Amino acid sequence: MSDGQNLSHEWFIHVNDEDKRLYVSRDKPNPSGAFSPCNMSPDDVDYEMSKGKSKKILEICGMNQKSFEYFIENYGEEYEFLSFFKCQLISDFSPLEKLKHLQGVSIYWNIRNSTLWDMSENPELEYLWLSSTKKIAYNPSALRTAKRLRQVVFIGDMDTPYPMNSLEWMRGMDSLERVYFRNIKLENRDTRVLDCVPSLTRFDFPAGMFTTEEIAYMCAKYPHMKGNSMGAYNTEDAILNDVRICGYRKPGLDLPKGQARLEKYIREFDALVEKYKAELRNHT
Can you point out the beta strands (E) in the chain? Predict the structure, then answer.
């Protein structure tokens, strides 16, 4: 998995798919600066939509709260997937509650919101991708309002991982199947909430998010659950090395030079998993 992108393959938008992209194409003053084009007006929305945009899938760049609300009210009804790219001045996503056919939402870069919206009003919503949404990532409890949400992606900042309070937002999400974290740091690493997510079969997280012992315990307790760091090592987080040993403050290794150390870590990890499996059996 690459940043959770393949989770939304059914909504792939190519750079040349102009009918699936909504942005200000005509020249106009941009007080927000060239790299923060949040100057789309309701009139811009009408002008761009008159070009024959897709009525199901749309990537939107440069909306503010006013143009966002106007778009939802006048054009949003039939949309199944909406991607908000650099719409950092949208301060309230609750208008999305009106979209009964919405199946997926992607939000990249938003600095105003600290919460999401009541997803119980979106009965078909299955997929959510959140990147560079620091305030939302801390306590995304609104996710529990979703009735059919299957896949959730959280991506923080590469240099400074975004804090997330805990995994409590997962509690009671019976339909949740896949969770993907990148550059996210948990303040409370309690994983007992996973007992309350019966459908979760894929949990991807940074190799250093949990200790080696915590990861081994999850592998023992939830053998049906897979993930990029649900094992002794992974390659996704090995930025400067060939492999990254899974666990807080564990090293990266270059191969074949570090092969012997890798095999040692694997043996130790497998032994931990077996130990925890035995303990779990004894407690049942």
Answer: 21-22, 57-61, 81-85, 104-108, 127-131, 151-155, 162-164, 178-182, 184-186, 202-204, 233-234, 243-245, 252-253
- pLDDT grade, residue 4 (50/70/90)? very low
Tell me the C-alpha distance between 212 and 232, whole Å: 8
Q: Tokens for 28?
A: 């106009």
If you average pLDDT over residues 253-272, what whole number do you get?
98
DSSP state letters, 198-251 = TT--EEE--TTSS-HHHHHHHHHH-TT-B-TTSSSEESTT-SSSSEEESSTTPP
In this model, does residue 121 exceed pLDDT 90? yes
Query: What pLDDT is stored for residue 6 in this prediction?
Result: 46
Residue with tokens 């030079």: 257
Alpha-carbon distance of 29 to 38, in angstroms, equals 11
